[in-house]
Specification:
2 domains; alpha+beta; Glutaredoxin
Length: 194
């Protein structure tokens, strides 16, 4: 009798856990579908013009938060090299200046644009300065870093030149830390569509 009662209790506990997990999965799926897709975002470019992400349909995208006074600032050169070699119909890079880390991007949009062009010949799309973390986080970066919104995973932007990869269907693929070179094998393979 004790054995039967124990089996019934274990079965009930398993059922309750399965129901709770199923409910959480349904809630996550509902939250994800109610959130904007990558293509729903619109930002302002470095020249103050609206920039609509729907133009990226069918393209792989590397998104990176940049700064002019950072130890990683020289990555602008590698980002431009990657863009010069592979940017175009199927791949692009978007730079987002951000001043979230030790005041390393204090300049205006005009200052940032002049710095990038003079020192690195940047031709990939640059956006206006935003916040990539904290209470004033831009909605795009909220989407990039929150699994409930992006449907993939939670990510944390820890420093300047943190990289996110979004595939040609607008699905967030993964992120790479600041220390990962834009010309790394993983990022180049992504840009090539491999």
């Amino acid at each position: 009798m004790f054995k039967i009662a124990t089996t019934i209790l274990l079965a009930f506990a398993f059922y309750a856990c399965s129901q709770k997990e199923a409910a959480q999965n349904i809630e996550l799926a509902m939250n994800t579908t109610n959130n904007p897709s990558f293509y729903d975002f619109s930002v302002t470019n470095i020249d103050g013009q609206p920039f609509d992400f729907s133009q990226f349909k069918g393209k792989r995208v590397l998104i990176v938060n940049v700064a002019s006074k950072c130890g990683y600032t020289k990555q602008y050169e590698q980002l431009q090299e990657l863009y010069s070699e592979l940017g175009g119909e199927t791949f692009t890079i978007i730079g987002f200046p951000a001043n979230n880390f030790m005041n390393q991007e204090p300049g205006s949009e005009e200052d940032i644009k002049a710095f990038c062009q003079k020192n690195y010949g940047v031709t990939f799309p640059m956006m206006s300065k935003i916040s990539v973390k904290g209470k004033d986080i831009h909605p795009l970066y909220s989407w990039l870093t929150d699994k409930n919104q992006n449907g993939v995973d939670d990510f944390k932007v820890k420093w300047n030149f943190h990289k996110f990869l979004v595939d040609e269907n607008g699905v967030l693929v993964t992120d790479y830390a600041s220390s990962v070179s834009p010309m790394s094998e993983e990022i180049v393979s992504f840009a090539e569509g491999k």
